[in-house]
Amino acid sequence: MKVNVSGLFKMQNNRIFQVLCLALFCVLALSLSPLSSAQATEYVDAAGPGGIGSSWADAHTNIQDAIDTADAGEEIWVRQGTYNLGYQINVNKVVHIYGGFPLGGTPDWGDRDWEAYETTVDGVDGIDVAFHCFFVTADATIDGFTITGGLADGSGIHARGAGIYTDLCSPTIANCYIWGNNAVTGGGIYLSTTSNAMITRCTFEVNGAEISGGAIYVNDFVSTIITNCTFTENFVTDVLGNGGGIFNYQSDSIITNCVFSGQTILHHGGAICNNGSNPTITNCTFSENQASAGGAILNANTSSPTITNCILWGDTDLEDNPNEIHNIVPDSVPIIAYCDIQGSGGSTSWDTSLGTDGGGNIDVNPLFVGGLDYRIAAGSPAIDAADNDALPADLADLDGDEDFGEEIPYDLDDNPRLFNDPATTDSGYPPPMMPRTLTWVPTNI
Predict the structure, then answer these.
(1) What's the pLDDT band for 172 if we cut at 50, 70, 90?
(2) pLDDT confidence of 221, banded at 50, 70, 90?
(3) Rounded to 5 degrees, what are φ and ψ at 78?
(4) How high does pLDDT run on average in the chain?
(5) CB 151 within 8 A of CB 183
(6) How far is CA 303 from CA 201, 206, 207, 369, in A?
(7) CA atoms in the 13 A half-sphere facing the CB of 134
(8) DSSP 212
């Protein structure tokens, strides 16, 4: 099941950090688009003839053979179907691996649809179970796959990253449905030291870790870009575990246009746990996540994230009491602006235990549509209440125009990020008299 819900707010403006990230990631983002038609392509078809992979007619039957055959820079096109592993796929070259090509005929790039033509990499082959579905050691692209069944229950690196493990590289991971993977740390993805990944338009669902990072573990000195992703019912099982959705360790990630719902953990940080980390969290919604402390977010060991234009509502402790943000003080003090946070008192009666009030905060029921739909309904106090100047650069190039310096153009539904509701009095920034629209408006109103 793929979850597709709308991000509700604008992103935080941390311009110095974003410029550095722009320089680091612009080359990676180019890989979200197909390469030149002159570039060689390897073809993979699970039901194919097992040939040399130069066309659909003589396609490889597994992805590893295509990687082994490919030269650096080549594309690998993978036809719809299930690719059972039993052993990890070693991505040790700068190749661009795309799923979502339909069965039959000779499909071209324009025929590709990763949602309609599901391409599954399953860590279970009926006998063996892979520690990792993908083991990535190069600046490669993994785009358009369902990734499931990894079980990193070994030791050392084989206890990390059951869906995807990355080591000393900066891959692009896009349009993937990552679910049902389990590890000691980093159930869905483990990003090792200096693995500056770009993760875009992915869904993380029911991934688990024993210790930390049910969906993603971001390790030492990593600056990951996570954009337009959903995190649903990921979990950590240990009584001292951390980060049901994401565990950031000494890393300064940018997390934008994401929804976190239903993560569970017995200890710290239902959705996100930051340890020695200062991520920028913007345009995100947190609801129905649960932990003993920090149902939505916990900050420890000099973690002072910047949280802007977000909704944190309905996250609880283990006794179902509202518990949105918990800071292990005095060294962890987030800066929070233009957010709707349950129990915060808003900027007029700010609860200083949450962090520094950056202005524009409210404490009013955001009026979610309901069920599993975390868009906001008509009449929500969050509509037209964000800070437009907090919009960051489009580092993930969501609109594919290769302009990485423009403001991020879309929300989680891929509708315009800036949208003014004429029926709502603007309470965000800039003021109503200025010629820019304000948003927090859902796309279904």
Answers:
(1) very high
(2) confident
(3) -120, 125
(4) 88
(5) yes
(6) 26, 27, 25, 33
(7) 32
(8) E
